Amino acid sequence: MLKISNLHAGIDGTEILKGIDLEIKAGEVHAIMGPNGSGKSTLSSVVAGREDYEVTQGHIDFEGEDLMDLAPEERAHKGVFLSFQYPIEIPGVTVTNFLKTSINETRKAQGLEPMPANVMLKKMREKMSLLEMDKGFLSRSLNEGFSGGEKKRNEIFQMAMLEPKLAILDETDSGLDIDALRIVANGVNKLKNKNNAVLLITHYQRLLDYIVPDFVHVLYKGKIVKSGDKNLALELEERGYDWIKEEQPA
Amino acid sequence: MEALKDKLESSFIVFENELDDDAKKPVHKIRQQAFKHFEKAGFPTKKDEEWKYTNLKPILKNDFRILNKSENAIDFKDVKRFFLSDVDSYKLVFIDGVFSSWLSETTHDKFDICTLSSMLNRYEDVTKKYFNKALPQAETMASINTAFAREGAFIRIKKNQTVDKPVQVVFFTTAHDYDIMTQPRNLVVVEENAEVKIVERHQSLSEKAVLTNTATEIFAEKNSRLFYYKVQNDNMEASMIDSTSVKQAEGSNVRVGTFSFGNRFIRNNLNFFLEGEHTESHMDGITVIDEGQFVDHHTLADHQKPNCESHELYKGIYDGNSSGVFNGKVMVHPHAQKTNAFQQNNNILLTDKASIDTKPQLEIYADDVQCSHGCTIGQLNEDAMFYMQARGIPEKEAKALLLYAFANDGLRNVAIPELRKKLNKQIATKLNVDLDFEL
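Structure tokens for the assembled complex are given below, as produced in the milestone run.
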């Protein structure tokens, strides 16, 4: 589904990603872990198409198509979803209106008619109950005055509504208490199927107790320095990142 | 400018002759004094502090006709779109300065919703008590209006009356053969504990240059409530200078909303005089303009008595080479303790060529007051743009949605739902988007 090869990217002339290779197939859950500043969030931004980052080498293919020349919205229309580490507050636009625009613009790009209001409402209710959200939520301004946990839940709610092929969850566990974490993880697991894929980006192993990855990669100084299965995450939890750093050539 | 001044001088003589016996009425003394003031002061120039950022010269160079006689008939169906048509309302409609009884719906029943000319004829006491008592005498453009004041809206809501439906005041100009300057004059008196909602609009139906030099005086008496909305969405040949002054007595609550999307040039002088305790004043403004347009908001909140509050929120979106001015003056007199004055002016410039001069001007002579002011000038929030695009919303729609949301604050307080809807639509049109919902 997603094939990243020899990806080099940076911002303002500073190279942050220094040759990333990663392949994610449908039905898989991957986790990228790493210490702060290793380039985790840069990777998610580059895949989603943030223009501030400059790709200097390499490719990102999504379902056999080169993503590099596509605008962020075009990537979204193809089924790439990024759950933000810090969701943006947009005063004056309600959750409902935002989602309505998001869904119908995506449908338009896919050559589909707008979703009928009653169908959308039903779907919203369904997904909200999955994420144990209060329905008063829909009429609030997007992320404005939301707690950290509410913002993250709102991200997963949007993901549930948009049903992407590839969901990149950037530090979705940060700012969540244990109950919220369980609800969010449960939501992601329920949405997971053999046709879609999840890329978890996380500093801690905690989230991986709930969303169990098929593969775990360690990102360090802009490169994937180690890959393994879920046991690698447990090892990192136990031993920290220092041994990884030490294994690297100076 | 000199040519127009000469023309106004000769027109004033013709005007006096036309008035005949009416020139003996007390109101005409006021006109003559006002005209004298203009003759002495001349048009404002950029040397005047209040006109520093605003150049009137290009606006005044046309060969305007001052006194209009023609009343071209208008079919309602041709101008329906300039009204709130899906709501029952009183209407005062003027065509080229002349009242159109055909298009209007007036009343003298529980309140007077009629014309200034009939007020001047019928109620000498009203003239004496109110006419030209609110406008600052130093404002030259208002003086010109006063000198030629003959027609416009007269709205007087008697004690304890709440007007059952909004009042629409619409001025059309129709001259196809020459440029014209008009002087619409409105007087609004809301008596004790009365309430009314008013919408004012000026619309040119021709392709010739129009200069609307309008003035409105508002008297809000004890515990009265007034909602007054100005829709400024005229065509690109139309310029407007609006002088509006509000005098508020104890416990009154007045809101003036100014929505500027059209016209080539707009200057708003909006003055609030808080003359009684426990008054509340609200000024909302939304400006959305682009290539070739200019809008200037000059406001004053004059706190003369203790325990009053004024709230001012002006938002502007400037595209193309458009430019704007915001000058918000707050004056707190020595004994006006416990004043609460709030002022905010937020602007988004969409291009490098767009500009805004914004200036808060606070003069506070009392010590126990809360005054806050703030202004921002910015571009679109890039993080928000990326967030929306990453959710599949294309750049153009994302931009519009953000601008919409930005401007929305000023719409929230529009107390006539049909007007709010219409303004929503006008903003969407102006931003060139078709969103399938209202904010």
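The longest strand of chain B covers residues 210-220. Chain B touches chain A through 27 residues (CB under 8 Å). Further analysis is deferred to the final report.
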